[in-house]
Specification:
Order of helices and strands: HEHEHEHEHEHEHEHEH
Number of domains: 1
Number of helices: 9
Largest sheet: 8 strands, parallel
Number of strands: 8
Radius of gyration: 17 Å
CATH class: Alpha Beta
CATH architecture: Alpha-Beta Barrel
CATH topology: TIM Barrel
Bound molecules: pyridoxal-5'-phosphate
Distance between the termini: 23 Å
Length: 226
Amino acid sequence: MNDLNNIKTVEDNIKAAAFKSGRLPEEIELVAVSKTIAADRIKNLFDNGYHSFGENYVQEFTKKQEGIPQINWHFIGQLQTNKVKYIVNKIYMLHSLDRYSLAQEISKRYAATGETIKALIQVNIGKEEQKGGIAPESLIEFLDKVMELKSIEICGIMCIHPFKEPEECRRYFVEMYNLFQNAKDRGYPINNLSMGMSNDYVQAIEEGATIVRVGSAIFGHRIYYR
Ligand SMILES: *Cc1c(COP(=O)(O)O)cnc(C)c1O
């Protein structure tokens, strides 16, 4: 297992991409996507100073979270409304706020605890039918609606872009950056742009990502057991 070497290589690449685009490496957060990866491997990286991990499935997440609650857990998968109760007060940030009914349920559950949740709005940047997310042209309208919900702190936007060659993904990253910048220019207090995965996090950073979600480049190919 070369997880530690791999994550250091990813970090080096993040640094290089940051400098190339005139930014500081500290402006970019690496979320190690650990879905399907055993808890002892996560713990090993945690013990070596890596504190941000991303999970997709509620059941798997809650088990791992109980084992290592100190981690900053990012929930990045599609979240069913009836499973919101299992993640309340357990995650550092939700990346996949993709519909208003989910926002309402989250707001209700968090309000009951007196806590707030940090969330990113998922944008369906490739307008793909099989993917969740808000249509790019509806982002501002959606922002206005969810920012009314008091227990949700909207921190930015996220996308799962169409699966293509890294250089072909740039156009989606540019579109996301433009949406992000436009919202900021209009005064929405958002600071996070989550985009880019193992194949294309360098391109994503060069186009303005502040969070990259990297799984297989750290942990190798995933073996799905479901
Ligand atoms: C699995 C996953 C990733 C990581 O993908 P890799 O290609 O393994 O880096 C990133 N984001 C989301 C939403 C994912 O589901």
